Amino acid sequence: MDNKRSLRERMAASEGLLSVAASLICIAIGLLLGLLALAVINAEHAFGDGLMVILTSGLKSPRNMGTVLANAAPLIMTGLSVGFAFKTGLFNIGAAGQYTLGAFGALYCAIVWHLPWYVCLLAAMLLGALWGAIPGFFKAYMNINEVITSIMFNWIGLYMVNDIMYGKGKGAMYDLSTTKTYSLRKVSPESMIPSCGMSDVFGKLQSVTIAIFIAAVLAILVYVILNKTTFGYELRACGFNKNAAQYAGINDKRSIILSMTIAGALAGVGAGLYYLSTVAEWNPQVSTALPAMGFNGISAALLACSNPIATIFSSLFISYITVGGTKLSTQYYTKEIADVITAIIIYLCAFSLLFKNKIRAALAGKRRAVGLGKGGSD
Description:
- The chain is mostly helical.
- It has helices at 2-13, 15-42, 47-60, 62-87, 95-112, 117-142, 146-166, 184-187, 198-201, 211-228, 230-240, 242-247, 252-276, 292-303, 308-326, 337-349, 352-377, and strands spanning 174-175, 180-181.
- The model has no long low-confidence stretch (mean pLDDT 87).
- It is 75% helix and 1% strand.
- A two-stranded antiparallel sheet has the order 1-2.
């Protein structure tokens, strides 16, 4: 009995376990509500041709799973970008703009200068870091809300990149006849992230590269920095209470700028992983809208409760659901229904604290019941 009580006490005290349990509850309820949405649209095919297609398509072929991994790598990075800022008390809604600058840096170094992939990835990181540092500077020295500045710099970055790339109609990065950037595979194959045999495993899908491993390693690195280093402690302390951190001798302005700089660097790397793996090309026909990957990072961070390690799994899940949505029969549903289901799950994540408290209370209630039972038997 004491062992059971000790286990419940440890579970109730473990924030990690409670967060995982709360996220799983959000996913389960979200899938049930998604099934309900599918039933409203087309009740006859809601389960077999709807929810089950979304849940099983990724496993039906190696190429589908490869697509999941290829899209998960940049999502992990934008999720880390948003989650890192959350952990340090900031809301980085500018990941889309930082992602855009990262894409430009990677593609410019690859298509124009034909540099190796790791140098292109470094350029993506530096430009993303620069674009994240600017809202951090305004926050630190002028106390301007980072949400406002990062949103503005999203659009500034997008149109600046488009103007440099496509402003003259034809240039070093853009071919007007094809209305898209030059293909990296044809122009600079040496700048592509290597596959190391992964494409063969996943149905000869060339966009499956070691990017997913790079993203996972960076997620572990972010976890170590935040939780195991003095530097990470200072950043988190500043986020919890800037005045107290300042009183303790922590340079709050430096911490704010560095937090946003690192967040921007992570988003920039995400763009580099995506475009240098040739998952897609930067297309001016759709580049008048901000990259969805930047905003999807918010979803990944929320579902993971901003935990860097959990962000790996939340990103894989969101990527899996999204790929499954593209496999839905257009005869019955549109692929956007997967976004609806994901949105429901993310909305429920707003109640994750409520779920955590309920689980904690349930475990504590059992513990009290055990204690009373033991006392009565004596």
